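protien #1 (seq + structre)
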Amino acid sequence: MDIKEFLEYMDSGKRITCGSEIHECMHWLSQEALRLTAELNGSYHTPQEIRALMEQLTGRPVDVTFNLFPPLYTDCGKNLHIGKNVFFNSGCKFQDQGGITIGDGSLIGHNVVLATLNHHLDPRYRGDMIPAPIHIGQNVWVGSNATILSGVTIGDGAVIAAGAVVTKDVPRNAVAGGVPAKIIKNIE
């Protein structure tokens, strides 16, 4: 299975059966991501070197305006799409197999978790996974230690408060916080 076939399958939202070809491909890609993130996180790199490593990790160009303060952890990388003028603060953990898109001008705070996979609820199939993408709009600010779960869309201009656990979509220009996150107010 090549990367294109893998991404098409993951983007379809179909169940990933434990031990299947797609599941094995996930493990292979995870090993590559672990190697690249170990290199990224293991010593100092200039912003240009960080972008070059991120291009290897994602398999696509990363805009010159992208900035990252390592460490960064991901178990895939190939389904991570990063806009322009995006900043990742240190300690972020992205599970991007199900697809993560981060829009232009977005700021991702310390230790943010983006998780795009759920395990099957039926204990007989607990090793199976269901992917669903996370979409973060433009000019979004995700506060430190927030967690955004699979299938969630964050609208343009929204703010996710520090420590929030986002289980449902957040509309544009809204501030969401709490566990589970709820709309606190709208930005005028």
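ok now protien #2
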Amino acid sequence: MMTMQLFYSPGSPFARKVRVLARERGLLDVLQETALSPHDDAPELLAANPLGKVPALRTRDTTLFDSPLICEYLDMLGGSPRLVPPDGPARIAALRAQALGDGLMDAAVASVLELRRPEAMQSTHWLRRWRAVIERGVTTLAHEAPPSGFGIGAISIVCALAYLDFRFPDIAWRAGQPSLAAWLDDVSARESMAATRPTA
């Protein structure tokens, strides 16, 4: 099997989602992980993703970007059972859960970037809207049963909630959602999660 190169940032929850899936699928022997900052516009990242974002995957034949696409591609390389169901209601449920997790990550990452701007330039309007998105998303997760197993939906949700713990401990979502917090702690003990904890 060919060797691929994954560009990622250690703090990116989207890149973590891909790295978790790669470990769950046993692909580390054909996947070279290269850590970098997307803010540096590294030439190798821009060559792999003209949008300048992580994660980005270079294969023998092409480059792929956007975490759902990369996860779908990597999942096809492993054996059965797939972490992204190929069809039917199970696929729709998994993709819906992934979309919810990704949406939480979108709002959280946007908030982080906004808070890094000089305080006088920060938009309180957007920070409030993103916080509301996060709160509604967490509430929705708490009222729905967690995805069964550890497929793409669960991976996305876990990476999103762990990112909130990492970047926004002040949100304190765990206090109001103890069952969801317990589920997160349980699945976070997996080797793939422990090996990809954010560091920056």
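The two ends are 32 Å apart (CA to CA).
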